Backbone:
DNA sequence: GCTTCTACTTCGCAAATGTCAAGAAATCAG
DNA sequence: CTGATTTCTTGACATTTGCGAAGTAGAAGC
């Protein structure tokens, strides 16, 4: 397992030379996480950020009635971490669990800080990365505000069809903010078209 | 009009000496915006960030059916800007409009970049600020996912009662993701308790 | 003061979604 | 392979929310 995918990912966000990128990803270390195991539990501080080489994870928390609410899916070749816990060293408010067996490259908060100080590009990368995450969250927020459940489903399946191969529908339902029975009905309607 | 409130705000996010703070806010300039005027229009790049000395603004966009969707309220002594447009110099996807007459201190993107380079604290402040905004957006997202309209209303009125003094209820309805008639019903039910 | 406009409420009905229970289908463990 | 568990679907019914229309109250303009 080499760091090619990681380097490609980093350079797509912030173009830079191969050498710079290599320097930037040097501190990342490999990890394996078995299916249903946790990368992070509520109350713990998220002290690493993981680039997913293979596998899928999801983040979730509970609502007032004790139902699981899926807040994010992390597919291969993206980063998985609780951004808030990681950057502010706060206890996490959610769980991050492996939906399938996973292999990741992870970077500790300390190593990231070291990179921030020694590599100006990394500082810029870090900032862009947060803005990017903010952007995605905002789109999802807007989608919740202005679209019906069916429209949200339609958007998700066309923008991220991979998710549907990787995770159970009930997680997707709670991610879309609807009951799993409602999702089932929406899929039925949707299939007719 | 002096910069005391601005300095206080900045130092609350990132503690620093009075001198540092003074240096940091030096480039901010005053502006007045009349009721119903626009601080930003869709399609324009948001090239300044505004600290609101007095007054209230809101951000909004339109959904597929042409209805206004309020995405944010900006109360006095906070920052108003389209974060995504500002940091990425992209065309804004929304409008920012003054709900009442406003006075602001604004900083241009160029001046912010200059501050980033010359004042390390400001870099750190910028990053923390984005993380903070992300945090707030995430809470709202969760609130949409796990709470009923009435719970969201209840939460808003207890966390930000000021908003209800400043902006029409119909804006609040679209901010909560419901029709104004539904908000009216919810308020009626809510008043009984 | 009068008119006009906007914000807000209320009503009746329709559409969307939730809840609960049952059963089918798929997956997992031994 | 087989039984147990989990996931998914379906149906009946309740609840929430949206929509259009009508009416009221208050603010703004003249």
Residues:
């Amino acid at each position: 397992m080499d760091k090619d995918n990681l380097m490609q990912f980093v350079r797509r966000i912030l173009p830079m030379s191969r050498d710079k990128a290599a320097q930037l990803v040097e501190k990342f270390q490999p990890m394996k996480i078995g299916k249903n195991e946790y990368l992070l539990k509520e109350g713990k501080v998220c002290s690493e950020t993981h680039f997913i080489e293979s596998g899928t994870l999801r983040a979730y928390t509970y609502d007032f009635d004790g139902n699981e609410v899926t807040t994010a899916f992390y597919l291969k070749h993206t980063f998985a971490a609780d951004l808030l816990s990681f950057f502010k060293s706060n206890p996490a408010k959610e769980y991050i669990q492996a939906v399938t067996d996973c292999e990741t490259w992870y970077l500790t908060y300390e190593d990231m800080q070291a990179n921030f100080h020694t590599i100006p590009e990394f500082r810029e990368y870090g900032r862009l990365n947060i803005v990017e995450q903010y952007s995605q969250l905002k789109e999802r927020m807007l989608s919740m505000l202005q679209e019906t459940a069916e429209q949200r489903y339609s958007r998700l399946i066309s923008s991220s069809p991979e998710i549907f191969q990787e995770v159970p529908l009930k997680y997707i339902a709670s991610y879309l903010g609807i009951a799993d029975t409602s999702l089932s009905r929406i899929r039925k309607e949707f299939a007719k078209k």
